[in-house]
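Contributing new records

If you add data, match the layout below exactly. Sequence lines come first and carry their own label; structure lines follow with theirs. Keep one chain per record. Anything else will be rejected by the validation script.
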Amino acid sequence: LKENYKVVNIPKLKEKLREKSREELIDLIIRAIKGEDILSLIQHSEKEIKITSILRTFERGNVDEMTVQNIAEVIRNFKHKISKEDLFILLEKVTLDCEDFGCFYDDYRDGYYNEPLFEAIGEALVEKDLTQEDIERLGKIIDRDEYELTTPLLNVFVNKAERDPKFFTLVKKILPPEDRVN
C-alpha cells in the first residue's frame, strides 16, 4: 500500500491495530470517516493516542463498567509509555469532572466501579519518578475528591510505602492517617 509515495508495512500496521483497545479503534474509524489521515495516527506514539482517546471517552460520557476495565488494562499494559503528566491529566479529569459521566456509579447494582481504573493509575504513578511537587498535586486532587474515588489509588501507594521507606517518606502526608506510621 502506498500513500503519498510512502510504503506502508501492512503486517506492522496490523500488529499496531491489534494493540489498540476497542475504544481506540472506534475513534480511529470515526476519524477516518471524517477524512483524517489515520495512518499517521496509528503509527504515532501510543502514549499520545491512548491518553487523548481515553480523555475523549470520558468527555463523551461513555463510561460503563466494561469501558473502565478496558481503560485500566490499557494503562497497565502501556504504563511505561504513558508520561507522568498524562497520568495526572487523566486522574484530574476522572476525579474532578466525574459528575459529567456519572462518577462511576451503577444505579442498578447500587455500587461504584471505579476501582480498576484508579488502581491502574496508581500502579503506573508509583513506577514514575515522583517529586514532592507531584505529591502536592496529588494531595490537592485527593482533597477535592468528593466521592472518594481515589481510595484504590491510595491503597496502591500504601502498599508501596509499606515496602519502601524512601517512598513512604515522600508520600506520607497524602496517606490516610492510619497509614502514616511506618
